From TrEMBL:
Gene3D superfamilies: 3.40.50.11340, 3.40.50.11350
InterPro entries xref list: GDP-Fuc_O-FucTrfase, OFUT2-like
Entries under Pfam families matching the protein: O-FucT
Species the sequence originates in: Bathycoccus prasinos
Name of the protein in question: GDP-fucose protein O-fucosyltransferase 2
Source taxonomy: Eukaryota, Viridiplantae, Chlorophyta, Mamiellophyceae, Mamiellales
GO molecular function: peptide-O-fucosyltransferase activity
Pathway where it operates: Protein modification; protein glycosylation
Amino acid sequence: MWKSRSVIRSNKVFFCLALLVMLRTVRKLESGGARKKTTIVQRSVGNFHGFVVTHFSGSGFNNQVHQILNGMAIAKALNRTYCLSPFLRRKSDETNAETKFTNFMEIFDVSSFTNVLNLEVMDRCSTFCGGSIDFIVNMSPRSISKQAYDRQFAMQHNGFQTNLKNIINSHRLEDLGTSWIEWENEVHVRSALRFKDAKCIELYQPFPASKLITDGYFNFLPSSLKFSSSIITAATEIGKELFFDDAYVSVHWRYEYQKKGESKCRKKSLQTRGSGDICFVIFLKSFRRSAKDYLNFGDCGDCEKYLQYVHIEDIGKVLRDYQVLTRKKIFLASDADARIIDSVRKFVDFKMISDSKIGRKVVESKNMELISVIEQALCVQGEKFMGTSYSTWTTTVWMLRSPRFEEEEERIHGYIDILSANIS
């Protein structure tokens, strides 16, 4: 009896401590951590010539991860300091919605980057640059308009008051189109970007991921990506609550029928396969040689592109077969609504973040970025991972898992082969 009470008391204490950690993380991110003047403990040495700043506006969180990694690679190639960009988001899809910023270091651990390149926080960068950019490199496939440049006032919030018109009139803007995506090494970067007198360079929307970081000279950067200790702690406690100390497998299912958002099936004019209410956007390299060929690092010229439609029961069967194959419980991360999730639960048992008491507190915060990264951390901690092909969310999980699971074939995507085998 006394042992039982002791265990119960211990579990209550454990839950309270875990909840306290989680609430502190929520409050820290909601309070606008990016505005704090945090410092970076720099371990790399050398002479650095100027600064590189990434300007993204309107992109999703995981797209911004790709852009930051591109920026890091270019800064390293040019022997410059990279200004660590805070993530930005709008609280809603309304045009005049308030823009929120989240410090990179609230989400990720920078220590694995600081021994290979020079980093600086954005507040200090804007001071060193005198609050203005000297040269803009347009890495978007479209020309820069003032309206697009000022969207969400991203650069202004970061302490830069650059006059775009003056930059253009003084010929301090270069349009690269999409040629930079094929860069593979330092020589390619240096030959294309020669700004000896430009102290502060702005990279405007450097997406998708270039060969520099996927297959090129700087391919070590994505595997250097690690979550911060607070995110790992939160995910670990939620995982214990859901699965105790049992190993589990993780699955990401991107539901493509949201009312708003980019890259949805209703916006794609592609060949269709199958039938049903559920749609997968499939972008796969025609000749797949490695796990990376199954992942979305952006548009691909040599890709097999189509829409795969399936039924709810098909999804249920895929998850059930995966559970039988691995003999493990499933953690599911998905943006599908409750009605869809309840329908899938009729075919297979799985857990989601909202099935945890601590996880429900995270969901109740309505901080979509925080919910997303904790779900990603849970997917990273899973014994195996199965994700959605056309999703930078899945790609981020793969990057975070890759240092630990070098030989893991299941990290690819999972759905495509299983769906093809089970659906005529």
